[in-house]
């Protein structure tokens, strides 16, 4: 089974925001002040979902499953996502049937892959958001897995309607950049059908709500 196991990874957004402050000295600007025109949105962890997909090198054996956000906060300006961060609970890794207590999931959680006991969460911090074509955006950020942080970029469709923000995007990463080397062709001399692809895809669906509107 380990010959066919796939990797998952994830990521997606907890967007660190700043909170309101009391003004005690008019000559001192507080770092926690949210700039005028910026709005704080809280990620709805029950409505948000990340779907992961991995395969062997030849693509003949593919696995997919799910993983969930534990918390997240976004900053929106004029209807556009401009910052924030999100945290993923690595203990929520599931297979395509939403199973968690099986050999596939247990292997993904062990030290061959995500070493979840040692690194129970992964995070992504947004650094930029630029328009491409139509309603598509190029979202860039820093993704941390197993204590290793690397820059990432992914394409996403975003929208804000009546205080509800939605993001639908696809992120692909090279897992070896986060020291996930199990059966990677870069580090092991294996037959093609035993080699696991270094590329992992995940499809991100995020729903967040404006904190001020109490939706």
TrEMBL record:
PANTHER family: PROTEIN YCEI. InterPro entries: Lipid/polyisoprenoid-bd_YceI, TTHA0802/YceI-like_sf. Residues 40-209 form the Lipid/polyisoprenoid-binding YceI-like domain. SMART domains: YceI. It comes from the Bacteria. This is YceI family protein. It comes from Flavobacterium hydrocarbonoxydans.
């Amino acid at each position: 089974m380990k010959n066919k196991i796939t990797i998952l990874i994830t990521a997606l957004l907890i967007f660190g925001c700043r909170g309101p402050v009391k003004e005690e000295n008019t000559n001192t600007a507080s770092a926690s002040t949210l700039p005028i025109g910026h709005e704080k949105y809280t990620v709805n962890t029950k409505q948000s979902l990340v779907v992961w997909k991995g395969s062997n090198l030849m693509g003949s054996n593919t696995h997919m499953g799910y993983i969930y956000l534990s918390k997240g906060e976004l900053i929106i300006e004029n209807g556009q996502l401009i910052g924030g961060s999100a945290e993923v609970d690595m203990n929520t890794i599931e297979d395509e049937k939403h199973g968690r207590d099986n050999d596939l999931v247990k292997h993904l959680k062990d030290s061959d892959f995500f070493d979840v006991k040692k690194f129970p969460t992964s995070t992504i911090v947004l650094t930029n958001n630029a328009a491409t074509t139509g309603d598509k955006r190029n979202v860039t950020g820093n993704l941390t897995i197993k204590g290793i942080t690397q820059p990432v970029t992914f394409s996403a469709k975003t929208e804000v309607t009546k205080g509800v923000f939605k993001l639908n995007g696809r992120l692909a990463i090279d897992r070896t950049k986060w020291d996930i080397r199990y059966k990677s062709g870069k580090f092991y001399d294996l037959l093609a059908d035993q080699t696991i692809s270094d590329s992992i895809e995940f499809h991100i669906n995020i729903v967040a709500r404006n904190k001020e509107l109490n939706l």
